[in-house]
Amino acid sequence: MYEQLASNRRRSWFLIASFVMVVAIAGYGMGLAIGAGPIALALAVAVAVAMSWVSYYSGDRIVLAASRAREVSAQGEPRLHNLVEGLCIAAGLPKPRVYLIPDPAPNAFATGRDPAHASIAVTRGLLDKMNRVELEGVVAHELSHVQNRDTLVMALAATLLGVVVLISDWTLRSFWWGTGGRRRGSSQGGGAAGVFVLVGLLFALLMPVFARVMQLAVSRRREYYADVSGVRMTRYPPGLIAALEKLRDDKTVVRTASRATAHLWIESPLDRSEGRLSRLNRLFDTHPPLADRIKVLREL
Questions:
Q1: Are 103 and 122 in contact (CB under 8 A)?
Q2: Residues 37, 264: Cα–Cα separation, whole Å
Q3: Domain ranges for the chain
Q4: Selected catalytic residue, list 142, 245, 274, 299
Q5: Which among 100, 206, 212, 222 is least surrounded, fewest beta carbons within 10 Å?
Q6: Global confidence as pTM
Q7: Mapped to the 3 state alphabet, what secondary structure does the chain carry?
Q8: Which CATH architecture has domain 67-151+220-298?
Q9: Residues 214, 122, 85, 159: what is their CA dihedral angle, to the nearest 10 degrees?
């Protein structure tokens, strides 16, 4: 577990450093194109550091808001709260805040920068379709992410990834508009400016690729580890096995999920049926196959 904690700390710093570097390069490139390189670099670094700060301290709230999760009380969802509280006592964890997502697809995720600031969110579909031991297995899996500090890395990846995609779109639009303006105006310095435009355009096109690299920093092995840790917490492998089998057989898609937040959930919430979009979702899948995870648990 200590090795996992150290690895997650390294990944967190890697994500933040990489994000600051990419935003700084993008800002500097755009600054060169308009003749304000150093100023744009300083501004980009300041913005990137501020965004990283917000992602570290508020990434969980951003993710919960994007998922349309609402906090529920013990009176509103007593079964869920009882399971969370009992498992936290057994694992020696502080009880996280509990959220419900009004979505018929069965799924769940945990978020938060550390166990003292953690939250667990489940969908209405999960509560409706899982019995007690299956729900306990899912909750234990998510609490394992909290215990291993996976939640910090995953929240950072989700919020910073979303920012990178937005910057990519903004950069493309800016250079497209800037090129058009230069064509209409003076041609002085057009050669140098054209080089900067091409460099900026190439960088903007590569930004989604970098976003994918950031997401891959959240290792797929985390799910295997959380499965095994969750089973140790409940001491009942059939519960999580049955839950994963239900998730495997259920084809419902979480409507509030996106590729930026897909790695947070216990299984990929995106559409993986036939079709062009589903093929793209499978290409960027952040989870190992459920069949492989079930096989590992059966061998315990």
A1: no
A2: 37
A3: 2-64+155-216, 67-151+220-298
A4: 142
A5: 206
A6: 0.77
A7: CHHHHHHHHHHHHHHHHHHHHHHHHHHHHHHHHHCCHHHHHHHHHHHHHHHHHHHHHHHHHHHHHHCCCEECCCCCCHHHHHHHHHHHHHHCCCCCEEEEECCCCCCEEEECCCHHHCEEEEEHHHHHHCCHHHHHHHHHHHHHHHHCCHHHHHHHHHHHHHHHHHHHHHHHHHHHHHHHHHHHCCCCCHHHHHHHHHHHHHHHHHHHHHHHHHHHCCCCHHHHHHHHHHHHHHCCHHHHHHHHHHHHHCCCCCCCCCCCCHHHECCCCCCCCCCHHHHHHHHCCCCCCHHHHHHHHHCC
A8: 2-Layer Sandwich (3.30)
A9: 30
* pLDDT by position in tens, the chain (length 300): 556 666 666 777 777 787 788 777 777 776 776 677 688 788 888 888 888 888 888 888 988 998 999 999 999 999 999 999 999 999 999 999 999 999 999 999 999 989 999 999 999 999 999 999 999 999 999 999 999 888 888 888 777 777 766 666 666 666 555 544 444 444 444 555 555 555 556 556 666 666 666 556 556 678 898 999 999 999 999 999 999 999 999 988 898 887 778 888 999 887 655 444 444 444 456 688 899 999 999 998
Would you state the structure tokens that stand for residue 115, as one six-digit string? 């166990």
Joined together, the tokens standing for residue 13 give 């710093």
